[in-house]
Amino acid sequence: DIQMTQSPSSLSASVGDRVTITCQASHDIRNFLNWYQQKPGKAPKFLIYDASSLDTGVPSRFSGSGSGTHFNFTINNLQPEDSATYYCQQYDNLRWTFGQGTKVEIK
Amino acid sequence: QLHMQESGSGLVKPSQTLSLTCAVSGGSISSGGYTWSWIRQPPGKGLEWIGYIYYSGSSYYNQSLKSRVTISVDRSKNQFSLKLNSVTAADTAVYYCARGFGSGPQDWGPGTLVTVSS
């Protein structure tokens, strides 16, 4: 099975900051990667697919990049409502795996 | 607008079978191309994919759970179901159903907490 390693596990940043989360795959997954946002007590929300394409209605301050085994997720101009846990998820070979999650807190 | 709602027993005894149903409204479960999936999240922990099924009936499961899991579709009721047998305390989690594609879940239900305890 493909393993996904996310880092950091948590971070704290100020409003207006730029934050970056990394996701590393144990095998080459091309660009078969999604990103999700989850707020406490809520279901995850789909943000980005194919590593870098924003889902409809997702603010442009969110972005994704990468291919192969190394991927980044960036929030530019961090907003208070961005406080959440973010997960990567790979979909190579018909099986899915989630990363462990990164908790983003606002200072 | 698509709406999905999980239902089932919130308390299951160890060694018994966990059964959940996801009712789908605002869309047909027979629509081509979609996957209907189950994902779970133990309290305070991350997301774990359980499995998914296509409208055609083809299904794919997490290898670590495969021997205990069955996902099925009931087109007449526009719903799909999860059965997980021989449960232990480690199966205590919030269980989510979701619609998506082979690439992953996109539209999620609100989730339902299932506790395994005697």
Write a structural description.
The complex is a heterodimer of chains A (107) and B (118). In chain A, the strands form two sheets. In chain A, strands 2, 4, 5, 6, 9, 10 and 11 form a seven-stranded mixed β-sheet that branches. A four-stranded antiparallel β-sheet of chain A has the order 1-3-8-7, with no helix packed on it. Helices cover 0% and strands 50% of the residues of chain A. The model of chain A has no long low-confidence stretch (mean pLDDT 97). With 107 residues, chain A is mainly β. Chain A is globular, with a radius of gyration of 13 Å. Chain A has no helices and eleven strands. Chain B has 118 residues and is mainly β. Chain B has no helices and eleven strands. Chain B has strands at 3-8, 11-12, 18-25, 35-41, 48-54, 59-61, 69-74, 79-84, 93-101, 104-108, 112-116. In chain B, strands 2, 4, 5, 6, 9, 10 and 11 form a seven-stranded mixed β-sheet that branches. Chains A and B meet through strand 4, strand 5 and strand 10 of A and strand 5, strand 9 and strand 10 of B.
Q: How large is the count of helical segments of chain B?
A: 0
Major beta sheet of chain A, specifics?
7 strands, mixed
Strand share of the residues of chain A?
A: over 45%
Unreliable segments of chain B (pLDDT under 50, ≥5 consecutive)?
none
How many β-strands of chain A, per DSSP? 11
Span between N and C termini of chain B? 39 Å
Query: What global shape of chain A is seen?
Result: globular
Number of helices of chain A: 0
Spell the H/E element sequence of chain A. Answer: EEEEEEEEEEE
Oligomer: heterodimer
Calculate the mean pLDDT score of chain B and round it: 96
Distance between the termini of chain A: 37 Å
Beta-strand percentage range of chain B: over 45%
Mean pLDDT of chain A: 97
- What share of residues of chain A is helical? under 10%
Specify the biggest β-sheet of chain B: 7 strands, mixed
Q: Assign the structural class of chain A, choosing from mainly alpha, mainly beta, alpha/beta, alpha+beta, or little secondary structure.
A: mainly beta
Taken from the alpha-carbon principal axes, the silhouette of chain B is globular
* CA radius of gyration of chain A: 13 Å
